Amino acid sequence: MSRYRGPRFKKIRRLGALPGLTSTSKSKRPRPQSKSDPKKQQLRPRKKKSFYRLRLEEKQKLRFHYGLTERQLLRYVRIAGKTKGSTGQVLLQLLEMRLDNILFRLGMASTIPGARQLVNHRHILVNGRIVDIPSYRCKPRDIITMKEKQRSKTLVQNSIASSSHKKLRKLYHLTFDSSEYKGFVKQIIDRKYVGLQINEFLVVEYYSRQT
C-alpha cells in the first residue's frame, strides 16, 4: 500500500488529532448535516467498537501521523520486536528518531510531509553532510543544519516563524539554535514526550500475526 496522499481532514475526523499530517487541527469546512431526524439520531445507540477496530484505528493513527506506508510500518514493528525492551516503546522511539520527524519537532517544517520534502530536495545536512533520505535514523550528538542557499533558509524560516511550533521546540531530547537555524539531538526520546495520543501496544497486537 502506497503512502496516503488524499484528504487530510478526512483522516483527522475519523482518527483524531494528527499533528504530523497537518498543522491545522480542524477543518474550516462545516460538516454536512444529516437528512434524518436529529431526535432519532440521539435515541439511536452507538455501536461498540470491536477490539479489531480499536487496534486498526491505532495502527492507522500511527501510520498517517508519521507518513508511512504499510510496508514501512510493518518493518519498524519487526525491528522493534527484535530489540531489547518494550516493543511498543521501541517502535515509537524508532519513528521519533527519523530525520523527517526530527525536523518537524524542531519546527524546521510545519508538517512531516513538509519535512520529507525538504530532505528529498537536499536542503538538509546532518553532521555537515547532505542527507536526502527522510527515514534516516538520527542518533544522539547529531547536528542538523540546512544548506547555505537562500532558498533553503527561506523555507525553514517560514516554518520557524509559525507560532504553532514554538512549543514543539521545547523538548528535552532536542535543542534548537534559532540564530543559526541549527538543531542538536541530545538523546533518544522518552515515551512520555512523544507528541501523539496513542496506545502503541494495540499497534503491536495488530501486527502480532505478521511478526
UniProtKB/TrEMBL annotation:
Pfam families with a match to the protein in the record: Ribosomal_S4, S4
Superkingdom per UniProt: Eukaryota
PROSITE patterns: RIBOSOMAL_S4, S4
InterPro entries assigned: Ribosomal_uS4 (IPR022801), Ribosomal_uS4_bac-type (IPR005709), Ribosomal_uS4_CS (IPR018079), Ribosomal_uS4_N (IPR001912), S4_RNA-bd (IPR002942), S4_RNA-bd_sf (IPR036986)
UniProt KW keywords: Chloroplast, Plastid, Ribonucleoprotein, Ribosomal protein, RNA-binding, rRNA-binding
GO molecular function: rRNA binding; structural constituent of ribosome
GO cellular component: chloroplast; small ribosomal subunit
Biological processes, Gene Ontology terms: ribosomal small subunit biogenesis; translation
Region (Disordered): 1-49
Stretches assigned to the Small ribosomal subunit protein uS4 N-terminal domain: 3-96
Gene3D superfamilies: Ribosomal Protein S4 Delta 41, Chain A, domain 1, RNA-binding S4 domain
Role noted for this protein: With S5 and S12 plays an important role in translational accuracy.
Name of this protein: Small ribosomal subunit protein uS4c
